[in-house]
Amino acid sequence: MAETNRPLSPHLDIYRWQISNTLSILHRMTGVFMSIGGAFLVGWLVAAASGPEAYAAVLGFMCSPIGLLLLAGWSFCFFYHFCNGIRHLAWDAGYGFDRDLARRTGWIVVIATSALTLVFWMMAWASFGGGA
Amino acid sequence: MSLRSPLGKVLGAGSAKEGTGHWWSQRMTALALLPLTTWFVVALLGLDSLDYEIVRAFIGAPLNTVLIILLLISLLYHSSLGLQVVVEDYVHAHGLKVAALILINFVHIALAVGAICSVVIIAVGMQS
Questions:
Q1: Is the dihedral of CA A89, A94, A96, A100 positive or negative?
Q2: What is the C-alpha separation between B111 and B105, in angstroms, rounded?
Q3: Cβ separation of B121 and A49 shorter than 8 Å?
Q4: A113: buried, middle or exposed (CB in 10 Å: 19+, 13-18, 0-12)?
């Protein structure tokens, strides 16, 4: 289909952000960000197979401030995408479409994500916090 | 059972593409990823440290090797499918869309092969 420059109806500028559309785009965004994280996961495995120097370099980067910031971001994304993913799978099976129920499960996802991310980092600190 | 009428088939009416396979694979990998990622996160947290030797021992333990490979396949396929849908939604210039879809597929296959080879190399190395 040829590209045209026809005017579009307004969308992002007029529709109010609600739990429904916010969580939906967040699901996509966390997914995309984790795709990038996947490449880093592979890089970590390749480094572990390549030898101590390569591994130390990768681990050093991941423990640096920017590395830890990325890991914090990816962990939040992971728990969010995981919990909201379950919500999606329930929809695919036909459950949870009632409007008020969908809003409630949406808030449950937000709370669960925050709790899981917090617990994860507390446990990571306990396991590795002394100094990786 | 196809819902297409015989006339529709003959006229070639309707969509030129189909996405049900993609949709189903996305759900299947999602389902597989639920236990696989849970296992991975819990197992990593249970390690004494993330040092070279400990991580290699973890990856090389036979059951772990298998689970990591399953995780990698599910994760990278799920990621590839997801990114493809994003491109299909937002990229409309046909040439750019096709190039992006090819690139996404190639990169994910490269990552999968690289990761699986690394895991196998570590596992085999652990046997010596």
A1: positive
A2: 10
A3: yes
A4: buried
Q: In 3D, which of B128, B24, B113, B126 has the Cα closest to residue B69?
A: B113
Closest Cα in chain A, distance from residue B57 (Å)? 10
Q: Mind listing the pLDDT tens digit for each residue in A26-72?
A: 999 999 999 999 999 999 999 999 999 999 999 999 999 999 999 99
Q: Does B31 touch chain A (CB under 8 A)?
A: yes
E strand or H helix that includes residue A1: none
What residues in B contact A81, CB-CB < 8 Å?
Answer: none
ipTM of the complex: 0.92
**Alpha carbon distance B82, B101 (integer Å):** 11
Which pTM was predicted? 0.91
Identify the closest residue of chain B to A57 by CA–CA distance.
Answer: B52
CA gap B116, A49 in Å, rounded: 10
Round to whole Å and give the CA distance between A99 and B126. 54
